[in-house]
Specification:
Length: 440
Amino acid sequence: MRLFGTNGVRGIVNQDLTSELALRLAMSLGTLTRGTVAVGQDTRVSGNMLSHAAIAGLLATGCKAINLGIAPTPAVQYFVRDNADAGIVITASHNPREYNGLKLIAGDGTEFGIEGELAVEDVYFKGSLKLADWRETGELSDTNVIPAYMESIMGKVNASDIKKRGFVVAVDTGCGAGSIVTPFLLSKLNCKVTTINAQIDGTFPSRNPEPTEDVLTDLGKIVISNGADLGVAHDGDADRAVFIDEGGNFVNEDVLLAIIVKHVLSKKVGPVVTPVSSSQRIVEVAEAAGGHVIWTPVGSIYVARMMMQVNAVIGGEGNGGIIFPEHQYCRDGAMTVAKVLEIMTERRKKISELVKEIPKRYMDKTKVTCRDRDATMQQIRASVEGNIDTTDGVKIWYDDGWLLIRPSGTEPIIRIFVEAETKRRASDLLEAGKQLTEGC
Ligand code: MG
């Protein structure tokens, strides 16, 4: 039995995800860690219920707990890397309102990998919890991590030149944890800032925490009416950032990654790391600048760990989750915002002009329900030939595009992703993908 899914432990509050679960999970982590553990949370209504349960679990095992309160996930990771042996973030990231979750952070600030999760699960299910003697139950303190986190970001971009530009920026933090960082960071960068949904509100009254194009129409309108240079939005825990150009148009996240890769490589050539589901545009941009791409399975932890291993200069996912190794090895929404302003400053270009420099490609995806994912994947693997990559699922490369078929980690479905140079070819590839999974 597994407790962790692809993104930590997630569930609907008080149905799948209870305070008892948080308590026991924290006791399991505390049993293994026996040190200092920081706990942070996004703005969800159930955040206090779960963070206090987690803190109680840590203290029961003799850990020292540091309550960071509401903070973006990357701010918690930044704190843990320098100040704690582990961390727990109470967040369900981009999931709908009724969800919450627990994400475990390793001592180096990266997310827990599969080995760490299995070790915690082992203690959790076997009940081999080691509770402390009454004299040794843990101490609790509070810390505000936000000022140091923002200072670090300011020091990792060309802040003095960005300040001279006096950008006009509209921000939609979706009432999530980014509300207490990004508007203030932009002010420090001498931007003229307009916010919507920047009040902390875990009922997420105006939009879902997932910052998709369709929920950002208000932001687009504000960008246009204010004559803003840029619109910025985050998911609920602000490890991702997405952008709207000065004309109110959503910037595709793979294009965003390509823009950042191009800029980073223009200064320093080195490996670029991204999951197999990312756009071929990343490869084209990287190779044109003398770099090369290393593929990983889908999941930010794989990207972060590979980046550390190969000493990558940049990495990230095609969902607005970008990792800047000079700052830290995790996706960081506020850092991404600062970096995009740096690129606009140094290149002296509008965001729409930076978008136009990236080759045009067409991506599409779908999912099919599947009774036996493993058997189907085996069948597909045996039936396809040519240029095949099996980093995660089966990816088939063609001269003019690719098709990726991969099983979901959590649901009885198989996902199909395609990319091609024309829309027509992309829909043909999607059709081919559906045929390969037929009757599964
Ligand atoms: Mg997130």
